[in-house]
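Today's session is about reading a structure prediction critically. Students often jump straight to the picture, but the first step is always the sequence itself: look for stretches that repeat, for charged clusters, for runs of hydrophobic residues. Only then move on to the predicted structure, which in these notes is written as discrete structure tokens rather than atom positions. Here is the chain we will use throughout the hour.
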Amino acid sequence: MGATVTRARPLPLAARTAGISGSVIDSSTSLLQAQRHDIVRLAMGSPDPEAVPTAAFAEIAAEVLARDAAASYDYGPTEGERELRAQLTAHLAASRGTAPDPDELAITSGGMQGLDLTCKLFVDPGDVVAVEAPTYTNGSAVITGYGGELLEVEVDEHGLNVDALRELGAARPPKLIYVIPNFQNPSGVTLGLERRRALVALAERWGSVILEDDPYRDLRFAGEALPPLRELAAGSEAIVVSVNTFSKILAPGLRVGWVDADRDVIAAMIDAKQGLDTCTNVPMQRLVAGFMARGLLPAHIRGLRERYRAGKGELQRELEQRFPEARWTDPDGGFFVWLTLDDRLDSQALFETALQEGVAFIPGPAFSASGRFAHALRLSFATVSPERAREGVRRLRVAVDRHAAER
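Below is the predicted structure for this chain, in token form.
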């Protein structure tokens, strides 16, 4: 408590390599890819392929890539295509009530590049970085790739426990705080409003940067939307870098995302990105901009919300029937339910048995650098139809019973 901390600022843009180490999720994916029989894929954090607007994409691509065709295949501005940034600003104004200035936006190659650029600017070897427990695997991997030391802070039904963070970070405040505030990956929980305010205040006091990873925000299908941390930090000294992506609302293969941050951070980020890939894929930027310019995005998002509301409902009804002894989260949006099983079961050991029974999930230890959460697993209700989600839970019950009998 009361520690003196120097306010974090972008670091010199020295060349760095973010090494992402292997994890539980790597071995799980390899086993999944080796399967040849029918699998209910409750593992992946991506949209249902049937929900991707492929017909609209084909029509728009034929038009936008034919118009000024030479420029569509040339290098683009590192900060992103002007039209996409304009469409994105309008979308944020309509969907959230506030919109950043265009100079506070940078288009990135998916959300992952936003995470990487933020860590490139703010994380030095030996810096403490607070992360949720459990948390998104690749987010932690990027942090450790830059030499950051992870400080795991528990997540409960109201999101990141800010009181626990305050206690754990008192002696050595974190340089950066990595948080997924809406429908968190993997737990599905949402950071409450009072905790959001407390987190911004604590970050301002410590001089910590908040990395707000917010890819699921538009996928709320229940409850009231809460203000982004970036918005709550307006007028304060807190630095919030908000990372977003079209991967969860359109398609991951587009590799188009964006970062919203203060102008000086965005300027440094653009310099850093110039040395990485020069610009985000121009044809894909123009495709996304064309989709938005036709006014198709709001209706598409509404359809996703209805689809995922139904998927979560079917999955949870099946859990209630087949797993009365277990506990699970009840998300208001996003993709995921976090299932906690009997503490005598190991979800990593269960994984191969589940594949043999025709269902895939991600084991809990994949979401902790220290290998915690052995008795938990992540289920995605977004990648499959509601009917398939129910079938997946049925198969999971068979796998759990078989695994318990074989121990």
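Discussion point for the tutorial: The CA atoms of residues 18 and 146 lie 6 Å apart.
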